[in-house]
Amino acid sequence: MNEEIIFKYLSGEISENEKQQLKEWLQVSAKNRYYFFELKSIWQAKKQFLNPATEELVAHDLEELNEKIEALEQLRKNSHTSLRKFKIRVWSASAAVLLIVIGFSVFLSSNPVQEEIPESFITYRNSSQDSIQVVTLMDGTRVWLSEQTSLACPEHFSGETRHVYLEGEAYFEVAADSLMPFLVKTDANQIKVFGTFFSVNTRHDDQVNEVILTSGSVQLQRLDGIGLINLNPGQKALYSKVVNTVEIHEIDMSLYGSWKYGLISLSNAPLSKILHCLENTYQVKIQMDTTSLRGKRYHFSFKRSKGIRDALDQLSFMTGVPAEIV
């Protein structure tokens, strides 16, 4: 895949023939799609944020993504589907269509009570109201902590597992270690993984925990370690703490890649998808007369920490139609 085609797509200058080439490359493997969506997220973050701290974070992620793509090229250098080595530059906005498909629900037995966090554990807290905090653990695992989120972990991992305790919302890039699985424990369940990329949200609403897998594989478990269900990339699990059920949703990973930078961004999306995204993000119901806007598609990006009111004001300004919380 010629990198120029990717850049043309992100800047909206791609031809129909090049678009077909890109589409075929994305269909080759989940890894191709993951790197593309990660690149799209960094593009949006670079465009939206200007403060020095975020600039440094994005620059670091760009460098790491370059290294990963170069490693992918080495693995596929003899394949016709290989991606040429390239260095990512800061270009303009990207495009991706939001897709959410309701999956299935599984009823589970009652869950044990959460264990206490050991006193020897250290706790990282992001007390900010509008920024993401990045923590690097001793094994090389990186964790992006959302606003008002805490992560407790041992100073050094030892024993058979690497386990941490999460309260709030975080994105994990877990260092691979086949001999010492990584466990994320929440108030209602735990997630077991050997090395992958995923996010966990214990505040999806008052009674539901959310797990989204972008790469690799994870297993959703009860607190006592009993396996409940395995997730595949592009799946979201919603665990109900009230009725002990798990719902599996198929998602477009491009929707969630910008999360690490506090962004939610949709491109070439119908208004119905934007409204659905806002309702899920802020757990509200939105009223908006979309009759005159049917068939239209929009590019819509906003900083999540600004809140639903600012998001609706931006949407109303863009469409010319008022939007209100019911």
Write the layout of secondary structure elements.
Blueprint: H1 3-10, H2 16-28, H3 30-48, H4 52-75, E1 100-107, E2 122-126, E3 133-136, E4 142-145, E5 149-153, E6 162-167, E7 169-173, E8 182-185, E9 190-193, E10 197-205, E11 208-215, E12 218-221, E13 227-231, E14 235-240, E15 245-251, E16 263-270, H5 271-282, E17 286-288, E18 297-303, H6 308-319, E19 323-325
Parallel strand pairs: 6-8
Antiparallel strand pairs: 1-15, 2-5, 3-4, 4-7, 5-6, 7-10, 8-9, 9-12, 10-11, 11-14, 12-13, 14-15, 16-18, 17-19
Helix pairs in contact: 2-3, 3-4
Could you please describe the fold and organization of this structure?
This protein is 27% helix and 32% strand. By secondary structure, the chain is α+β, with helices and mostly antiparallel strands. The strands form 4 sheets. The chain has an 8-stranded antiparallel β-sheet. The protein has a 7-stranded mixed β-sheet with strand order 2-5-6-8-9-12-13, with no helix packed on it. Strands 16-18 form a two-stranded antiparallel sheet. Strand 8 and strand 9 form a beta hairpin. The radius of gyration is 20 Å and the shape is globular. The termini are far apart.
Short structural summary:
The chain is an alpha+beta fold and 326 residues long. It is built from six helices and 19 strands.
Classify the helix fraction into a percent range: 25-40%
Q: Alpha-carbon distance between the termini?
A: 47 Å
Classify the secondary structure makeup into a structural class: alpha+beta
> Which oligomerization state do the chains in this entry correspond to?
single chain
Order of helices and strands: HHHHEEEEEEEEEEEEEEEEHEEHE
Average of the residue pLDDT scores: 76
| Low-confidence blocks of residues | 48-52, 79-104
Largest sheet strand order? 1-15-14-11-10-7-4-3
What portion of the residues fall into strands of 2 or more residues?
A: 25-35%
Question: What is the radius of gyration?
Answer: 20 Å
Number of helices: 6
Number of strands: 19
